[in-house]
Write a structure and sequence with these properties.
The chain has about 525 residues and is of the alpha/beta class. It has four domains: about 160 residues, Beta-Lactamase (2-Layer Sandwich), CATH 3.30.450.40; about 170 residues, Rossmann fold, CATH 3.40.50; about 70 residues, Helicase, Ruva Protein, domain 3 (Orthogonal Bundle); about 60 residues. The chain has 19 helices and 13 strands. Strand 10 and strand 11 form a beta hairpin. It is elongated and about 95 Å long.
Length: about 525
Amino acid sequence: MDTNAFFKKATLLICSSLDIEIALWRCREFIAGYIPADEIYLNIYEPDQGSIRYIARADRQTAVKLEKTINLPEALIESIENSKRLQNGILIIDPEEDPMGRIISREFGFADISMMALRLIIGEQRLGVMDVFAKGKNRFTNQHAELLQLLKEPFAIAMANALKHQQVVRLKEQLASDNRSFNLELIAHAGDKVVGAGGGLKDVMESVAQIAPLKNTILIVGETGTGKEVIANAIHQSSARRNEPFIKVNCGAIPEHLIDSELFGHEKGAFTGAIAQKRGRFERADKGTIFLDEIGELPLWAQVRLLRVLQNQEIERVGGSPPIHLDIRVIAATHRDLRQMVQSGEFREDLWFRINAFPIHIPPLRHRKMDIQLLVDYFLNKKSRELGIHKLPALAPDAIDRLGERKWPGNVRELENAVERALIEQRQGPLSFQHSLEEPGNDQLVIPLEEERKKDSLTLDAVTRKHIVQILDAVDGRISGPNGAATLLGVHPNTLRNKMEKLAIKFGRKRYH
């Protein structure tokens, strides 16, 4: 016979599928014309466990995956390790005379059978053994063994690939499970329900119900603290992507020089410090939803990159990798007036048109005071659990009226902080919120705004610098936070930091002169 043709055909069949049982069945069908092979089994030898683990079987009718482990006696393991058994790769075994053959025959219920064992090795790594069985005694000859031994390397490679493939599948399943757990944690953190859905947010939730089943890009507009992330999460959970990733990105919190890498990923060696390939936020959100909070803080060059993603549904990692196609839904959010930013040249008009097709406007808390009672009850339960308070304190008779009189510039987030502070200060009750509504350190925030009348001798940058320094003086150099300079100036902290850098105002308290 032509052994080269036999080897070539058998190798093609062995490598025809990553499902090792399918490849095993195809190969058995072929070699059965040359070797009496009624059944073929693949096993992995696990010396640390003292066992062999069978992973696949093929016979004349079918091929199946196996998960059968056979524990070996210690004496037999030691004999295998010390002997030259299968040293040359293959061995004809009489199951009645061989200890290993007897164990295998007993476990599988074989009787009156012949057996060949082909050892599978790549380099120094011992992968396992392929067992070939034929009904009847003395069915195998040395010629059969020599022919089967030709297939030692193809089977070893196929088995190694199959094991890697199984590992990838397990990791993928584990990742999916971890993602489901992460989404549950995210829901628990962001809130699995929208408080006020039947009240002040009724119109918002009607819009959510309209847009959630679709794939459209969405823009959520609302003041800081109104709950834009909660609405984005509600859209995701109401969509067909609910079991896929929900990735949140705070665009204003990413340093400008890291935006490319964080959003789109990078290849190994793309820049100094890129010691490994990294998947960006967009790639991690594939099949799911990405929430771009504070999209107005993205610099213009990053807006161009984002526009390409929205148009083409593909990204390129930093480092020149080929485009990666994505199935992704984008939800953007901002507290800024993007239309005004377009007119001033701070935001791209084409990106504005792309994301503004279906805007959702979240009303501030001062316009939905009917929800204050519901929100207070919700935060009381939530914060009491977090603080370990088992018995909820009662509310003072005028507490809700007191809360309803406030303008709430920080919206729902400010109300949440007020409830938490009241619980800490008055955990025995009743909660009056009197102290929690006071602005801490308000007497220290008197900002001197009287300027020297020398405008004709000052440039615009000089006036801007002087004003920023004056604000920083008043807040002891604090940039972010409710009493920080950014809040007082009405800008995002990162925007202020960028402006300070351009005007050579140093960062840090007492270091900005």
